[in-house]
Amino acid sequence: ELAVIVARNKNGETKTYPVVEMEFHPEANQVEYVICPARISENVALKARNIALKVANSFQHIGLLAVEMFQTKDDEIIVNEVAPRTHNSGHYSIEASYTSQFEQHLRSILNLPLGNTDSKVAGIMVNLVGEEGFSGNVVYQNIEEILKMDGVTPHIYGKKQTRPFRKMGHVTIVNNDLSEARKIAENVKNTIRVISK
């Protein structure tokens, strides 16, 4: 699955963020990793961005619009879902982009010039969800260990109670090398545990 976030203001100025790739948890059917840039060809990336722009313009949407898409085996792009807001698929932008999706949303709804959507570095987001078998007051076990890792930034959402697969936060990994960022993301995922007291 791929996603593109489109920003559009009242003047009709539009910008797209790079295409991201989403890896899903096989049991929970939740996004586990968001990878930017997506590991796809330039041709497929261009097609995905153009489709996302077409969707946003057809709605005449003001603000951010996350457009989720499936890439078929034949490199066809099928729109799956849209979300008219800041989105999980753009959380990486806080650390990795020149203009975060949150700043961009404010720029677009206030009809200000849109910011640069380019990435400064490769970014990967890891969702933090409650582990199976744990419910109650949340504990982020081993958070100190991931804080020791270069380019790793946790974002905790402040929810006091955890339960299996409840989204509790995310961690962003930035690195000049996407494959290295993906390895660090795996390490983060295997290190931090969202459990209960």
Describe this structure in words.
The chain has 197 residues and is an alpha+beta fold. The chain starts with a strand and ends with a strand. The protein has five helices and twelve strands. Helices cover 25% and strands 36% of the residues. Strands 1, 2, 3, 4, 5, 6, 7, 9 and 11 form a nine-stranded antiparallel beta sheet that branches. β5 and β6 (77-83) form a beta hairpin. The chain folds into two domains: 1-120, D-amino Acid Aminotransferase, Chain A, domain 1 (2-Layer Sandwich), CATH 3.30.470; 127-197, no CATH class.
Write the layout of secondary structure elements.
Blueprint: E1 2-8, E2 14-16, E3 20-24, E4 31-36, H1 42-59, E5 63-71, E6 77-83, H2 93-96, H3 101-109, E7 122-129, E8 136-141, H4 143-147, E9 152-156, E10 161-162, E11 167-175, H5 178-191, E12 193-196
Antiparallel strand pairs: 1-2, 1-3, 1-5, 3-4, 4-7, 5-6, 7-11, 8-10, 8-12, 9-11
From the spread of the alpha carbons, the general shape counts as globular
Most strands sheet: 9 strands, antiparallel
Rg:
17 Å
Q: What oligomeric assembly is this protein in?
A: single chain
- Which topology of the largest domain does CATH recognise? D-amino Acid Aminotransferase, Chain A, domain 1
Strand-residue fraction?
35-45%
How far apart, in Å, are the first and last alpha carbons?
Answer: 35 Å
Concise summary:
With 197 residues, this protein is an alpha+beta fold. Helices cover 25% and strands 36% of the residues.
